[in-house]
Amino acid sequence: MKLADGSRLGKADVHIHSIASDGTASAAQILEYVESHTDLDVVAIADHERIEAAFECQRLAIERGSRVQVVVAEEVTTRSGHLLGVFLQARLRRNLGLETTVAEIHEQGGLAIVPHPFSSFTLGMRKHAIMRVHLSADPLVYWDALEGFNPSTAGRYGRGATARIAAELGLPLVGNSDAHTVDTIGDGHTLFPGTTAEDYRQAILAGTTSGSCITWGPVREVLIYGRQVRKQARDVSRWGRRNLLRDDAPRDLGVPPDQLERQRERERLYLAEREERRRAAGSGSAADSVARSADDARESERGLARRLRAVRLGARARSMAAAAGRREVEGPPT
Predict the structure, then answer these.
(1) Which residue from 8, 17, 118, 258 has the highest number of Cβ atoms inside 10 Å of its Cβ?
(2) Is the pTM of this model over 0.85?
């Protein structure tokens, strides 16, 4: 989409599933389709509880010099529903408290986005959980965006309520496909100023995104689900051979074994270095702690910007809490 000054808006879809979870295509197949059949600029594989395919897709894009920028994401299950973490460095743990997981995403330098809110049959987050995070005093616990445009039945169910609560809370809306087959990638997307992954991040932080999606009909959804069922049947068969027949058939994540080992080593090093920084920050004199904090801030300007933004959100949240008796956010449709 061209703007008045001749520049164009970028297009992103950061909620795509691969065979590593309940999708039907590998990381390589997803990247090839995005490059040849879409005009997307930024994408992310966001598998359930996994990031292996996301890292592989990113690696392939860099190795090929792809026109598409790939970031790492994960759709993780929390005790309050599904949560989308984007720009991740390590895998998120499932079934933790919502606030704990949101804080972990931000500690990794990522964005915390609510996918398909209010959907009762896909663990969509409810209003009370969204409000709980929005009103949190913890500087790492806040929302970056809500997924207001999702072509599936899960996304369509709460679309109106999502738009209303986003307007109420002053949160940006994004669009994603929630694709489980390659031919549905891009059916939901986010428009943003710029074309790069960093432009996408900054547009969300600045609240300058817009979203769009088509609506899948029941026939399309049945066909998609049928392909998922066939893929899941193959996963079950492979699991049986591995666990019952002991034939050492590994789960197919669509990632070469050597790359899996490199991913795990990189993740281990990242977590070890972060733990070391935490220990260092908690020891020594007050002056040393201040000096280390200053060094950390200089190393990560974006991390500092996120914290400042969180403080502003906290101030706004307190004023909203004081006005809670006068108005209430409208809930999802019945």
Answers:
(1) 17
(2) no
Q: Would strands 111-114 and 145-149 be described as parallel, antiparallel, or unpaired?
A: parallel
Round to whole Å and give the CA distance between 290 and 244. 56
The residue extents of the domains of the chain are 9-216
* Ramachandran class of 95: left when φ > 0, alpha when ψ lies in -120 to 50, beta otherwise: left
**Identity of the residue numbered 203:** A
With tokens 């897709």, the residue in question is 57
Buried b / exposed e across 229-267, counting CB within 10 Å, b at 16+? eebeeeeeeeeeeeeeeeeeeeeebbbeeebeeebeeeb
Category of 184 on φ-ψ map: left (φ > 0), alpha (ψ -120 to 50) or beta: alpha
Homologous superfamily, domain 9-216: Metal-dependent hydrolases (3.20.20.140)
Q: Dihedral sign for Cα 158, 147, 23, 257, please.
A: negative
Residue 303, phi then psi, degrees to nearest 5? -60, -40
Give one DSSP letter per residue of 142-196, joined into a string.
---EEEEE--SHHHHHTHHHHHHHHHHHT--EEE---BSSGGGTTSEEEEEEBSS
Place of tokens 């000054």: 5
Q: What is the pLDDT of residues 64-99, one digit of tens each?
A: 999 999 999 999 999 999 999 999 999 999 999 999
Q: What three-state secondary structure class fits 100?
A: helix
- Pairwise CA distance, residues 67 & 39, whole Å: 10
The token duo for 238 is 């492979």
Q: List the one residue out of 14, 2, 31 whose CA is nearest residue 255.
A: 31
Check whether 286 has a pLDDT greater than 50.
Answer: no
Half-sphere exposure of 68 (CA within 13 A, CB side): 28
